[in-house]
């Protein structure tokens, strides 16, 4: 009987419509005109201009990408743009396998909030990291307040904030659970501080609001004026007596103090946090209805703005990548020298403009061009075989490796006119080093640990004339063949002095032997 029921219950689902099946398999099902998305197609389809749209487009370049500005116009045409540069940039960063960093002083860096801290430690929880960051923010606010009070009083002295006390350090250590050897991680969330200010960065991004959303947000802030005045009174009453000041005079007299302490940010953060947690509901609404209602979602911006989702360490980057060809273009100009205090070159590497310190470029590096001179060219001119002359790039070509990549400004990829803005608006800072550069040749131990050369190698010792390799002086092993280090004038001079010292020593000994009486 059970078998018959099971057989009767099994039914075959009807086949889906061809349009629905194609729509589910197509990447255009998630098309959003406000997001700059890059699309591709198989090479065999691209050669015919078939991109899965209603009509072919005039892009038949194999292995290319496009961006749709509009899926379908009223005039029955498709507006599109090339996106190969956008995709190639992401692929190049993935091939370099380097973790991009964000410049802290930029708008994107300050908007990251607690997510800007990249700490993955088994000895510290996220709460401790946020509390440490908040303590630094509080110290800065107190220093600004002390400087403002000193300016008002006519004095220039400011109080230097002390370091955390021993009692506070012991309190933090007591909050860390100990589970014996091999179990030093956090078994639970650490105790939060009494002042819940670690979420001061949880605020709405007014720059991403539409005019209607911004006006609604202003109306919401106007309704919070009584609560904000009460919050200011409670916070300022902890340090001074303000019981005689009315609410209408509170902002006028102590508004500067409240701004210095960033009380408006903490108030908005607390209100936004309660709103996102679903703790704020309309009057007369039952709690279970508020809990089941859709709640706003807290946006978490990506630290690298989506440029690189993996976070390889410098060791992983070093062993997973190799040196690649690059060109030294020119010297850093005076106007572009604001981020460095050393002489540097501007290079081109992996499709990016990078900075190369001259100490890491080697002694024979020659830039291709010299835009600040009358000639404008630094490289030598050679015959091109057709009766003309061309630049010789051999003296400017070097094998390079990228060591630093920082995001100055991420591209605008979300917005009403985002598909019309190319990804070239992104601003990156990068730094490279040259294979067997001058600084890399000064490593203390270039040999494999445990080998005979490792045990017999004597490290370099710094002198006032530079670094001396004692392995060369005493007939030890030389450096690796790949680590080319030309002998400079200082080493030649040291060698001549050593020969002169040996000759003087032999002459002195011979004179001493001649002056001794015969037995």
Average pLDDT reading: 71
Number of H- or I-type helical stretches: 16
Strand content: 5-15%
What is the percent of helical residues? 25-40%
Q: Let me know the largest β-sheet.
A: 6 strands, mixed
Distance between the termini: 130 Å
Could you spell the SSE succession in H and E letters? HHHEEHEHHHHHHHHHEEEEEEEHEEHH
C-alpha Rg (nearest Å):
34 Å
Give the domain tally: 4
- Would you identify the regions where 5 or more consecutive residues have pLDDT less than 50? 156-166, 178-200, 336-341, 463-488
**Alpha-beta classification:** alpha+beta
Give the overall form: extended
β-strand number:
12
Give an overview of the whole structure.
Helix content is 34%, strand content 13%. It is α+β, with helices and mostly antiparallel strands and 519 residues long. The chain folds into four domains: 20-82, no CATH class; 108-292, no CATH class; 314-435, no CATH class; 443-499, no CATH class. The strands form four sheets. Strands 3, 4, 5, 6, 9 and 10 form a six-stranded mixed beta sheet that branches. Strands 1-2 form a two-stranded antiparallel ribbon. Strands 7-8 form a two-stranded antiparallel ribbon. Helix 9 (225-236) crosses helix 10.
């Amino acid at each position: 009987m059970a078998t018959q029921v099971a057989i009767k219950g099994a039914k075959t689902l009807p086949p889906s419509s061809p349009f629905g099946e194609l729509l589910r398999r197509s990447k255009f099902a998630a098309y959003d005109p406000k997001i700059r998305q890059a699309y591709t197609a198989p090479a065999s389809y691209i050669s015919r201009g078939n991109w899965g749209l209603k009509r072919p487009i005039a892009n038949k370049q194999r292995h290319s990408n496009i961006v749709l500005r509009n899926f379908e116009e009223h005039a029955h045409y498709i507006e599109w743009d090339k996106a190969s540069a956008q995709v190639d940039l992401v692929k190049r960063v993935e091939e370099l396998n380097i973790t991009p960093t964000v410049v802290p002083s930029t708008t994107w860096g300050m908007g990251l909030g607690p997510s800007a801290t990249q700490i993955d430690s088994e000895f510290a929880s996220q709460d401790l990291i946020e509390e440490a960051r908040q303590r630094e923010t509080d110290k800065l606010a107190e220093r600004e307040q002390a400087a403002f009070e000193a300016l008002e009083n006519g004095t220039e002295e400011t109080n230097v904030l002390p370091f955390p006390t021993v009692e506070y350090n012991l309190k933090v250590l007591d909050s860390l659970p100990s589970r014996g050897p091999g179990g030093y991680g956090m078994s639970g969330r650490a105790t939060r501080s009494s002042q819940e200010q670690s979420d001061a960065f949880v605020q709405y991004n007014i720059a991403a609001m539409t005019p209607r959303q911004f006006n609604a947000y202003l109306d919401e802030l106007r309704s919070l004026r009584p609560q904000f005045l009460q919050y200011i009174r409670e916070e300022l009453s902890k340090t001074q007596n303000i019981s005689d000041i009315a609410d209408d005079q509170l902002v006028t007299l102590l508004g500067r103090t409240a701004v210095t302490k960033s009380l408006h940010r903490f108030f908005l953060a607390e209100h936004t946090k309660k709103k996102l947690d679903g703790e704020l509901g309309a009057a007369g609404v039952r709690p279970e209805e508020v809990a089941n209602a859709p709640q706003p979602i807290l946006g978490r911006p990506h630290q690298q703005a989506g440029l690189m989702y993996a976070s390889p360490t410098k060791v992983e980057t070093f062993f997973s990548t190799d040196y690649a060809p690059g060109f030294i273009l020119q010297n850093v100009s005076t106007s572009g020298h604001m981020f460095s205090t050393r002489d540097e070159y501007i290079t081109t590497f992996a499709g990016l403009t990078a900075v190369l310190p001259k100490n890491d470029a080697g002694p024979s590096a020659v830039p291709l061009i010299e835009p600040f001179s009358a000639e404008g060219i630094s490289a030598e001119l050679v015959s091109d075989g057709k009766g003309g002359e061309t630049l010789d790039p051999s003296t400017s070509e070097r094998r390079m490796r990228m060591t630093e990549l920082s995001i100055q400004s991420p591209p605008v990829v979300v917005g009403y006119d985002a598909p019309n803005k190319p990804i070239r608006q992104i601003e990156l800072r990068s730094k490279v080093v040259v294979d067997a550069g001058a600084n890399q040749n000064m490593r203390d131990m270039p040999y494999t640990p445990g080998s005979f050369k490792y045990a017999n190698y004597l490290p370099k010792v710094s002198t006032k004339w530079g670094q001396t390799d004692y392995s060369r002086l005493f007939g030890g092993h030389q450096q690796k063949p790949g680590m080319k280090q030309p002998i400079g004038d200082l080493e030649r001079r040291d060698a001549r002095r050593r020969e002169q010292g040996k000759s003087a020593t032999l002459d002195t000994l011979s004179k001493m032997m001649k002056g001794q009486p015969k037995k």
